[in-house]
Amino acid sequence: MATCRSKRFVLLLCGDYMEDWEAMVPFQALQAYGVGVDAVCPGKKAGDVCRTAIQQSSCGHQTYEEWRGHNFKLNASFDEIELENYDALVIPGGRAPEYLAANGSVVDLVRKFSESGKTIASICHGQLILAAADYLKGRKCTAYHSLGPVLVDAGASWVQPQTLADCVVDGNLITGTTYQGHSEYIRHLVKALGGTIIGSGKRILFLCGDYMEDYEIAVPFQSLAVLECHVDAVCPNKNAGDICPTAVHDFEGDQTYSEKPGHNFKLTANFQDIDASTFDALVIPGGRAPEYLQLNPKVIALVKQFMDSGKPIASIGLGHQILSAAGVLKGKKCTAYPTVKLNVVLSGATCFEPDPIDRSFTDGNLVTGAAWQGHPEFISQFMALLGISVVF
Q1: What pTM did the predictor assign?
Q2: For position 5, what pLDDT does the model report?
Q3: What are phi and psi of 325, to 5 degrees?
Q4: Where along the sequence do coiled-coil regions lie (predicted)?
Q5: What positions carry a catalytic annotation?
Q6: Which of 149, 175, 194 is the last residue of a domain?
Q7: Count of structural domains, the chain
Q8: Based on the domain organization, do 89 and 155 belong to the same domain?
Q9: Of 357, 233, 213, 226, which is closest to residue 285 (Cα–Cα)?
């Protein structure tokens, strides 16, 4: 269990093949806001791994498609849960709820949260667990549309989702349809925990490319959207509504990270129409995209414009390749993923070893992170530069 107590603490109920983003985005976003999060799974202990699943709509098919996601490391042990330590329960979707709903210990846990009156937030297929715990009778809720019949049979007041981003709040119950609605879903949870967002309304630009790292775009993008910021994602030679495929980079015992296909990330604006002067900050995800984005003169000009204006820039993982190519790191202090340390040092920066790998560092208007494991600190430091905070 966690050794230090935040002002608010949340329990994240995990299982093998839970949906990748529906676990990691709330897990890391809440920590960035100052909320403690314990991630547990029945039959597993702190340090064990839950494999995740990537689920998304499949063009031309009658249901979503699924493949392997990241490995999600638990930070607490299910058998050591003490209900009084938590202010809310969060349940990701994916396939894990199918079998967790049949686990007596899980059902008992949900019933105890229900009896305590504490907040429960559940998304997508997570509502199967609530149905098994007899929690939904007379409660308004939504979920992924295929759950409608079983939730009606469980006595729920079913709200048919009109979009995959729909959310419903009924007292202490927050339900969401899919991760596409994370900005509203997690914002409701933050407010239920007593959080007030200070400094919202910032305009933030994300510089995207094919095979950027899956978490390194999704987590900061959705975390900042939760905070009522206007977030735009652009990619050279692509327009609003176009897709950038992402890459899952994970550490699985090999000498370097493995790579698997990630989610398809939908862009929100046209690169050629971007006016950097209208944005307050820039975020550069890592992955493989920076390898070729650094060769694009328009990308380099955009990064230089942000740096010359003194606006906040946040770069993580291999994103530093773009900063190096733009010549904006000279005299800067930063941390970096080990394989891009050479780029950073040769560009005239002082590089701090990422030990541990979740280290982030701020120097002036620049926030750098080594890898997605450091998102809570990375996002928190970026929020500080933007003048954004969550007060409990």
Answers
A1: 0.96
A2: 55
A3: -65, -30
A4: none
A5: 124-125
A6: 194
A7: 2
A8: yes
A9: 213
